[in-house]
Design goal:
- This protein is an alpha+beta fold and 258 residues long.
- Helix content is 24%, strand content 29%.
- A seven-stranded mixed sheet has the order 1-2-3-7-6-5-4, sandwiched between helices.
- The structure holds biotin (BTN).
- Biotin (BTN) binds at residues 31-33, 55, 58-61, 64, 66, 68, 74-76, 116, 126-128, 144-146.
């Protein structure tokens, strides 16, 4: 397959200290999250990346399925973060994706709270963070990233109304290798910023397309609406409701209203 990936091509000359220095590649897999979780439980080295060309049972947030046929980018990064950085991992992942898309394609993506990366209102990337605790310590955290890279959305009617791909936006395929390498380098820089006591919250907030917009938030059977006024440092959304009260939304699915 043209532009196919390999562990060696990703690690070669990768400018990172640990993220992506070990890459485990599969041509086809159920879900990179599953394999990453098994490896993390066995103590895989910090920064290990599990990557595949194609997932047969990709997982999304809120128990949704995630379509990742050939041409997608589907990977999971294994980390062992301090518990203090756990809420920042969604910020880190979405920012790393935004920067890699901008740098490699010139497109201008934004972040739809909490961590969907969108281009012109359509989703181009989904992020799933899964972690396990041992007492008060993080046992492991896995950042799962799925990017609609070289897909034709016209082949995927299930999502073609709400999603887009880099290739559809550009009218040509992109180098997935460049995207992945840039993504891993940026993810590590942001992680090192956190470890050095720095903040990535401001940059994440400034890249949100949600703020100032009328939104509807769904979480389980709960639905609420209002103006997305701000985000707190822990990543939660501050929603100004019609009665004037401010609701703090920790998790949910946002629909932007026009
Ligand atoms: C979402 O927007 O609902 C999150 C989608 C996350 C998809 C990625 S693809 C790589 C990793 N493996 C999975 O099964 N899911 C994540």
């Amino acid at each position: 397959m043209a532009n196919s990936l390999s562990a060696a091509s990703i690690t070669e000359d990768l400018g990172t200290r640990f993220i992506g220095q070990r890459v485990v590649y599969f041509p086809r897999l159920s879900s990179t999250m599953e394999v990453a979780k098994r490896q993390a439980r066995r103590g895989a080295v910090d920064g290990t990346v599990i990557i595949t060309e194609e997932q047969t049972a990709g997982r999304g947030r809120i128990k949704r399925t995630w379509l990742s046929p050939k041409g997608s980018i589907a990977l999971s990064i294994i980390l062992y973060p301090d518990v203090a950085y756990l809420p920042s991992l969604i910020m880190l992942a979405s920012l790393a994706v935004v920067h890699s898309i901008e740098a490699v394609t010139g497109l201008k993506p934004g972040i739809k709270w909490p961590n969907d990366v969108v281009i012109n209102g359509r989703k181009v990337c989904g992020i799933l963070i899964e972690s396990d605790m041992r007492g008060k310590m993080v046992d492991y955290a896995i950042i799962g990233i799925g990017i609609n890279a070289n897909l034709k959305l016209s082949d995927l009617p299930e999502i073609s109304q709400t999603a887009t791909s880099l290739a559809d936006e550009l009218g040509r395929d992109v180098s997935r290798l460049d995207m992945i390498q840039y993504l891993l380098v940026k993810a590590e820089r942001l992680y090192l910023t956190l470890q050095a006591g720095g903040s990535i919250y401001e940059e994440w907030r400034d890249n949100l397309v949600t703020l100032g917009r009328q939104v509807q938030v769904n979480w389980g059977k709960t639905v609420c609406g209002g103006i997305a006024e701000s985000v707190a440092r822990d990543g939660s959304l501050l929603l100004r409701q019609s009665d004037g009260s401010l609701a703090k939304i920790v998790a949910g699915d946002v629909t932007l209203r026009h």
